[in-house]
Amino acid sequence: STRWVVVDDTSAEITYSGTWTERLGDFATMKSWGTPYLGSQHGTSSTGGAAFAFTGACTSLALFQVQRALG
Q1: Residue 50, beta-bridge partner list
Q2: Is 68 helix (H, G, I), strand (E, B) or coil?
Q3: Which of 37, 18, 15 is nearest to 27 (CA)?
Q4: Confidence of residue 66 (pLDDT cuts 50, 70, 90)
Q5: Contact assessment for residue 40 and residue 24, using Cβ atoms and an 8 Å cutoff
Q6: Maximum distance among all Cα pairs of the chain, rounded to whole angstroms
Q7: Across residues 13-35, what is the average pLDDT?
Q8: Rounded-to-integer distance, Cα 59 and Cα 2, Å
Q9: Phi then psi dihedrals of residue 31, to 5 deg
């Protein structure tokens, strides 16, 4: 059977490189996108990277993002 695991962008399992900011709030202006999982988002206005490492078997991986200027 399928087992879904959701990881928030504030998880210690995710490492960021470059200059990132974390934005917390109600995100009322996101309109149809709804509130982000656990209420936070990370964003960068320059070149940056994010990595997530896990141990185990994986048959699929999904990454959800919204590209929009923060601020």
Answers
A1: 16
A2: coil
A3: 37
A4: low
A5: yes
A6: 41
A7: 74
A8: 10
A9: 50, -120
Going from the C-alpha of 28 to that of each of 22, 24, 31, 37, the distances in angstroms are 16, 11, 6, 14
Neighbour count for residue 41 (Cβ, 10 Å): 20
pLDDT class of 37 with cuts at 50, 70, 90: confident
The amino acid at 48: G
What are the start-end ranges of the H helices in 1-71? none
Instruction: Output the pLDDT for position 67.
Output: 62
C-beta separation of 10 from 38 below 8 A: yes
**Mean pLDDT value of segment 26-53:** 73
Token pair listed for 58: 């994986």
What is the residue whose two structure tokens read 């990370």? 42
